[in-house]
Amino acid sequence: MRHLFGLINMFTSIDRLFVDCGPWELPVGDPNYELSPASPIIRDLTLQALEDPNCAIMFYNALRRSGSLDGPLKVIQFACYTRGEVVDFFDFLKDAGKHLTELNIDMYFPLRWSRGDPGSWDALSLDCCPNLEKLTLVFDFDAPDEMLHIRDVVLQTALQLYTRLLRSAPRRLREVSFCIYGAANARPAFTRSAAASEGRERWAALDRALSGPGTALASVKFLLCDVDGKGELEECKAGLVEFVAECMPTVAGRGLVRLRSEREEYPD
User: Fold this and answer.
1) Which of 31, 137, 191, 246 is at a distance of 20 to 30 A from 10, taking alpha carbons?
2) Record's superkingdom (predicted)?
C-alpha cells in the first residue's frame, strides 16, 4: 500500500485512477495511514473489490486533502463486498457529491448479505449529489448456485433501495443505467418478483421514480452482461422488452428504454 500511494503521489493530477483488487498490506497499527499533503488532484476514480474497507477510507481522506472534491472529481465508480463499505462510501459522498456528474455503484453483494432487511439501507440517499446526470446501479444474477428464494428476496430488497435512491436523486438526472450481470437469468428473476401483488407494486414504484413529474430523464438503459452469443442476446432483449412494457409501462411508453449488451455499450 505504501508503494501504491508513493507512486500516486508522484503526480500532481490524474485524469483517471482505477484501483482494483486486494488484499492490501496496510501499515501496521495505522489504518488511517497519512498520505503526502500534496496528494494529486483526481478527476475520475474507480475503487473496486478492495476487500479491506480501510483502503477505501485512505483514498477518501486523500481526496479530501487534495482539493479533488472542490470541483475536479466528476466521476466515481464504486464496487464493494460489505454493508460497512457502503455506509462509509455514502458518508464520503456527502463531501464528494456536490460536483459529481456521474456515479456508478455496485453494492449487490452487500445486499445479498442483508437479504430480508431492507430497513438497514434507509439512510442512504443521493440528495448530496445535486449535479448528478448519470447513475448506474447493478443487478447480479451470475451466482449459479444461489437458491431461487434467496435471489428473489435480494431482488426485492434491491428494488426498494434503488427506488428510494432515485427518489432522492436530482431532477437534472438524465440517464439511469441498470447493469445486469448474468443477464440470461434476469427475465425469470424479474418475472418471479412481479408475480405477487407486493412485488408488482415495487416495480410500479420504480417506474414512478423514473418517470415522475419534473424528471429530465432521456434514457433508462439495461446493460446486459455475461451473454453468450447473438442468439442469447436477442432472447434476453426480447424478454426484457416484454417485461418492462408490462411492469414499467410509463417508462416504456415514453420510449426511454434502451437495451444493449455490455460490448455494444463499451466496445473494445
Assistant:
1) 31
2) Eukaryota
Q: Looking at residue 59, what is its pLDDT?
A: 82
Q: Give 91-133 pLDDT, tens digit per residue.
A: 999 999 999 999 999 999 988 877 655 566 888 999 999 999 9
C-alpha 50/C-alpha 58 separation (Å) is: 11
pLDDT at 224: 96
pLDDT digits (tens, 9 = 90+) for 49-66: 777 777 788 888 888 888
**Quick one: pLDDT at residue 263?**
74
Non-local CB neighbours of 46 within 8 Å, separated by 6+ positions: 16, 17, 18, 19, 20, 76, 77, 78
159-176 core/surface letters (b: 16 or more CB in 10 A; e: else): bbbbbbbbbebbeebebb
* Burial status of residue 231 (CB atoms within 10 A of its CB: 0-12, 13-18, 19 or more): exposed
Helices 197-211, 148-168: axis angle to 10 degrees equals 30
